[in-house]
Structure formats: structure tokens, C-alpha cells
Amino acid sequence: MKILTVENLSKSFGGIHANKDISFDVEEGSILGVIGPNGAGKSTLFDLITGFTKPDAGKVKFFEKNIFGISPDKISNLGVGRTFQKLKPFADQTLLENVMIGAFVKEKDIKRARDRALEIIDFVDLIEKRHHFAKELSTGQRKRLEMARAMAIDPKLLLMDEVTGGVDQKTIPGLVELVKKLKKTGVTIITIEHNINIIMEISDNVLALDQGKRIAFGEPKEIQNNKQVIDAYLGTFDAA
Amino acid sequence: MDSKLAIAKSEPIWNTNNKVISIIAGLIILLFALPLFGMNSFYLHLFIMIFMHAVMAQSWNVIAGFSGQISLGHGAFFGIGAYATSFFYMEYGITPWISIFFGMFVSAIFAVLIGIPMLRLSGHYFAIATLLIGISFQVVFQRWDLVGAASGLWVTMTPEDSWLALQFHSSKAPYYYVFLVFFLITFFLVWLLSRSKLGYRLRAVRDDPQAALSLCINVSNYKIIAYVISAMIMAPMGSLFAQYILIIDPDRVFNIEISIIVLLITVLGGIGNVWGPIIGAAILVPISEYSRIYLGGTGGAVDLILYGLILMIICIFRPNGLISFIPKNILERNKQR
Q: Per-residue pLDDT for chain A (240 aa), expressed as one digit of tens each?
């Protein structure tokens, strides 16, 4: 079943086409990887789907419900969670408080919201850091915080912007494993990644963008061999 | 269940420090007992002013400290409360105990009307807009004949002390208790707010509106809710103040100085913390009152100069306010573990 359908989605800033006629769909329970060089329009695409930026044209359907142009809080309330490229933790609040804010969407009672938040914090392997302020956590831990916070709203679809961006080499495998673990819970994932090896490893499908346009969409193997993609982005990809 | 998770779940929701609770209970008992020890009129007045300013600052703390919107026109709600009580008492003989709620209601309505367009602005723009709104209330009331224009309202005095009319001429002690009870109720309600789902969501709006949006929080609505709550806390202080001095005019109850002082008190004590306004009021109000005694009149504005100096020192050395002098382990006990 298709969880998300995007048709001819377009957005311009002045004369620059950030996204132009982008179309794709996402199967429930799968992982879609989004790739493209800097400025390809990947994060803008996330902002358009989640309502943070108003699209100029096109259609966005979530479970057949049109969510084009709806405000971000309403879209998240439908079950679309997201993380941000530039991390946005509630810095002066503890990890537990950060996740509880998300958990309050499903749980009205403070004790139940707290228990739910603790379960999710345990899921992302940060239970020992629960009383640490977000500003005291490392970048990798803050990435986990954002995932936990987004998971707390019980999303059906989770958009993750550069999960492994800005973290050291040692932290990356743990984050990749966490994404795989997330998929096993049944949540559908769209993830932007610069690390091509990772995207090929975790994705069921890959969407390649260049200069705001879709240049390829398909299974990782197809994308690896797509000439347009190689030209635009994968020239340095280590196929081995 | 994972043992670490089980341990985490078994922790109490809120840490309670019996020592801190005992100290607070002791202080409350002491505050109730103080007038019985024959406090003179000045000290009663001093405490009344501390209670009043602490509540006013707490009001500002809700909008600025909890939801992150810097309002520079909060005195408007103080004035609305003052005029609502005095006007309805003088015109219709309605007891201030009822018109206090009317003042809160009118303030809430204005907060919604002001909040809907203004809270679309953010940062400096919102602050400047509220500053102008605050001034415009003063200008309107200066010209509004129905409420006495620039001369204001002289509340009809009862021949003797009256709890119904909230007027006490023989002693300030009843006023002391009225202000004290409002102070304690407000503090308790704001403390509850800070620990509620609403409190969590307001802090999310303050810390990162975009992240809040991604967590199903309608940022605009929550800002308006905070503004309304804040206005409803401020208005009763205007009402009680009007009954305390029995004469109000636009220059006194809509003065921009009110908006600035509540800001200074909160920032000095510690913004975003329920204790901050109390600490700030307990320090700044005596400075103001003593400077009035020793320098006469309005204190030759020396109090404001001192406020400015203290604030500069605090901003440089203790940006989190005087609350940061309290050891972290005691503060943390009041936080979610």
C-alpha cells in the first residue's frame, strides 16, 4: 500500500527552481533514500512534504489524503514525523523532557507520557542519558534524541534529514543500525543521506535529485547504474 | 523488561526534597504570622508591594519565560484590571471580588484580540508592537471621559473597613493578607502550569518553534494561550492595587514603567523559572521603596538607575538571574528527574 504519493511537486524561490515537477511514491514499511549533490533540493522536498514550506504546485497525498499546503503541526498530527538537517533539540531541557513533549501527542497523562518517552529513549540506547540536558549531548546523541522525539508522536512516516551527517566515523554504524531497527517497528522512512554506501545498504528505493529535478527513481542497484545519476552525483562512488 | 528501563520507570515523576518543602512551608507560616508581631505600616506596605510585583512578574514570566515572547506592554492588563474593578464598583456598586473576575475576563479578551495579529510577529517586532499597544491604552484612557479621562477614578470610600468593598482604612494588615493569598495562589498555579503538558509545550515553543511544529504543536495557538494566561494573572493585581490606593489614573496604572519593571524583576530573579520573579521582587521592590523614603517623591528615579546597574551586573556575571546562585542540586530537585 502506498503511504505517500508525490505528484509534480514544485517550488521556486525567486527564479530558482528548488523543486520542479517531482513525482514519486513510497510503499508502506519501506525505506526511501533521497540522494543528490548539495543544492539538489533534498531538504526543500522534506519541507514541502511536512508543510514547513508551502509548495507552488503539485500534490502530496498521505494515505490518499491530500496534505498539500497543510500546516506542519496538522501534518505531524496525521502521523508524519521528521528530524532536521540542522539539529533542533530543545537545548535547555533534558533528553527525557524533549521526548516527553512528543509523547504528549498520544498520552495525555504525565506518568504515561513519561513511561512512553522512557521506552523510546531506551529504544535509541540513551536511557542512561535521560536526565542530561540536550545541550550536554554529543552530536550523535542529539541525532538519536531527534529520532526519539519524532518517534514519540507515533509516526507512520518518518522523514530523516542526514542521520549520519556531521558525526564521526565511529558513530555512523550505530546510527545506521538504529535506522534498520526503526524500520523493523513498521514505520516507513524517507531519509536523506550523503553517504552513498549507507543509502545503498538501507534503502528499498532511491530517489535521485539534481538541480531541483528528479533524475532517477528505483531500486538501489538501478540507481547505481543510472548514467544520469553517475554523472550528477555518483562519479566518486566506490562500487566495491 | 530491560533493567535500566525498569529502574528509570520506577523513579518518582517529581523529585521531592523534604528539606526544601519544609523551608517553603515554614516561610509561608512566617508570612502569615508576620503582621501579628506588630509590623508597622511601612513594612506591611513593603510586603504588599513585594507580593504584588512578584505576581506581576510571574505574569510576565509566563509569556516571556515559558513561551519566549518578550512583551513590553504588559502594564496594559494591569490597567484594565484596575479600571474594571473601580469602574464597576463606583458605577454599579459591584463588589471588587466579582469585578476582579470581570477584569480578568476583559484582559483575556484583549489578549486574544492583540495576540492574534501580534503573535504572528516574533522577536523584536513583537516586543515593539506590544510596547506601542501598552502606550496606546494609556493614551485612550487619558481621553476617555466615561472613566474619568486624565484625572482617573476616585474610588468611593466606605465609612469603615469593609471586606465586601475590599477597603481597609484602619490598618494595612487585611490588604497584606489579600495580596499574600493571591501571591500564593498564583505561584502555586504557575508552578502547576510549569509541570503540566501545557507547560512542556510552551517551553517547546520557546526553545524551537519549528521543532515544536514537527511535534503537532500549533505554535500560534500556544503563544496566544500563554498571552491570555499571562494577562489573566496581571489583571487581578491591577484590581487589588486600585482597591489599595483607591485612586487610579492612566499615568499611574497604564504607565510604561510597570511593563519595564516586571521585566527587570523577572530577568534579575531568573526568567523561565517560577522562583525567579519572587527572588527578583524581594530584591528590587525594597530598593525602590527605600529610595523613595530617602530620596523623596518617586525616588528621584535612583531606583531605576540602581535597577539598571544591577541588571547590567547580572547580565554580565549571572545571565540566568539570581536563581543561578542557588546550588544546582537543589534546583534540579524541582525538575523532572
A: 899 999 999 999 988 889 999 999 999 999 999 998 888 899 999 999 999 999 999 999 999 899 998 999 999 999 999 999 999 999 999 999 999 999 999 998 999 999 999 999 999 999 999 999 999 999 999 999 999 999 999 999 999 999 888 888 889 999 999 999 999 999 999 999 888 889 999 999 999 999 999 999 999 999 988 888 888 765 555 544
pLDDT for B299 equals: 59
| Closest by Cα among A49, A117, A98 to B212 | A98
> Does B4 contact A122 at a Cβ distance shorter than 8 Å?
yes
Q: Is B336–A94 a contact, with Cβ atoms under 8 angstroms apart? A: yes
What interface predicted TM-score (ipTM) does this complex get?
A: 0.92
Contact B335 A152 (CB under 8 A): no
Say whether B337 and A131 touch across the interface (CB within 8 A): yes
Chain A contact set for B212 (CB, 8 A): 73, 101
Closest residue on chain B to A87 (Cα):
B211
Contact A160, A190 (CB under 8 A): yes
Total structural domains in chain A? 1
Residue among B203, B213, B218 minimizing CB distance to A93: B203
- A189 falls within a domain: yes
Does B204 reach chain A within 8 Å, measured CB to CB? yes
Residue A107 falls within a domain, yes or no? no
Q: Which CATH number covers residue A214?
A: 3.40.50.300
Taking the Cβ of residue A105 and every Cβ of chain B, the question of whether any pair is shorter than 8 Å is answered with yes
From A132, which residue of chain B is nearest by alpha-carbon distance? B337
Please tell me what DSSP assigns to residue A3. E
* Domain that includes residue A195, residue range: 2-86+155-236
Q: Is residue A203 part of a domain?
A: yes
Find the distance separating the first CA and the last CA of chain B, reported in whole Å: 20
Q: What is the pLDDT of residues B167-213, one digit of tens each?
A: 999 899 999 999 999 999 999 999 999 999 999 999 999 999 999 99
Domain spans of chain B, in order of start: 18-255
* pLDDT for position A239: 47
A190–chain B nearest CA distance, Å:
15
Grid coordinates of B289 = 521603596
> d(Cα B27, Cα A56) in Å, to the nearest integer?
61
Question: Is residue B323 within 8 angstroms of chain A, CB to CB?
Answer: no
Interchain pair B5, A88: CB under 8 A: no
The C-alpha angle B139, B143, B147, rounded to 5 degrees, equals 110
Q: How close does chain A come to B254, measured CA to CA in Å?
A: 34
| CB contact A53 to B (< 8 Å) | no
Q: What angle do CA B311, B242, B57 make, to 5 degrees?
A: 25
List chain A residues with CB under 8 Å of B224. Answer: none
Whether residue B240 is predicted with pLDDT greater than 50 in this model: the reply is yes
pLDDT of B100 strictly over 80:
yes
pTM confidence score:
0.90
Closest CA to A150 of A164, A161, A140: A161
State the average pLDDT for chain B: 89
Q: Among candidates B199, B202, B253, which has minimal Cα distance to B82? A: B253
Beta bridge partners of B14: B336
Of A82, A90, A127, the CB nearest to B203: A90
Q: Determine, yes or no, domain membership for A99.
A: no
